[in-house]
Design a protein that fits this description.
Layout (H helix, E strand, L loop, with lengths): L2 H16 L3 H8 L3 H7 L8 H11 L3 H10 L9 H8 L2 H11 L4 H7 L4 H13 L3 E3 L5 E3 L12 H9 L1 H5 L19 H24 L23 H4 L9
Antiparallel strand pairs: 1-2
Helix pairs in contact: 1-4, 1-5, 2-3, 7-9
């Protein structure tokens, strides 16, 4: 869909929400109703001056309309290899990217990490240019990735986590309050495996939603946790070496 079509769709939605008919809008714009209908048609010519005039009738700023258009765009399920590579290439940018993926406010990023406001702003601008966020006034932003977003399975970010993060994560004893490490091996049917996959995906989303919900709590009542969920068709090397079938899973 073109940007013009997106704009028309957003204006139509605003007109409907306000209860303003084409006839009423035509009267406000001093135009014929037929001209207004033609303007909103698939082949209509909606100039920026007309958009501004319609926004004034609706009592909204063009910036608000543009934000609504942006919010209507489909959210990305994954980044491209080039986008991930750009993020991983700069560790400061990667840090800010991870923070914004958790929808951490700008002020909290600067307060929690060794980064200046100018550096954090520069990182947000780069993430905006990469198409990962939509940057707004006052360093507010909106994510352009979907709730079920996943890094590329063998992309730059996951390779970074495998080489530099996982060993440190699993070096812990997982003995603290609310900590758990459980490794379970078994053979199950493919349908059951699919069901477990879906349940794990929902659990990951539940954790992400809880993170957002608990941002209203005082900082003293929140504790940092990282959940790592994994499920694959795999047999640990200690067992695979003894398989009579040569190590086939």
């Amino acid at each position: 869909m073109s940007h013009t079509a997106d704009l028309v769709a957003a204006l139509k939605a605003e007109l409907k929400a306000s209860g303003l008919t084409y006839a009423a809008l035509a009267e406000q714009l001093d135009m014929a109703e037929s001209s207004v209908k033609r303007m909103f048609s698939a082949n209509g010519d909606l100039t920026l001056s007309r958009v501004d005039a319609i926004c004034r009738v609706l009592g909204m700023e063009f910036a608000d309309l543009a934000r609504k258009v942006a919010d209507r765009q489909p959210l990305m399920q994954q980044l491209s290899h080039a986008q991930e590579a750009a993020v991983v290439a700069d560790r400061q940018l990667l840090m800010v990217a991870i923070c914004v993926m958790s929808q951490m406010p700008f002020e909290d990023i600067v307060a929690a990490y060794a980064i200046s406001e100018a550096e954090a702003t520069a990182c947000l601008l780069r993430l905006d240019r990469l198409g990962i966020i939509g940057l707004r006034a006052g360093n507010r932003y909106s994510l352009k990735v979907a709730k079920g977003f996943r890094w590329l399975p063998d992309g730059p970010v996951m390779r970074f986590f495998r080489t530099e993060v996982l060993a440190d994560y699993f070096a812990g004893d997982f003995a603290g309050d609310a900590e758990l490490l459980s490794v379970v091996h078994g053979e199950i049917g493919r349908n059951a495996a699919t069901a477990f996959h879906d349940r794990l995906a929902r659990l990951a989303q539940d954790f992400a939603n809880q993170h957002l919900a608990d941002q209203k709590l005082p900082a003293a009542q929140r504790e940092r946790f990282t959940v790592v969920l994994g499920m694959r068709s795999w047999l640990m090397p200690a067992l695979r070496a003894f398989r009579r079938d040569g190590g086939a899973a």
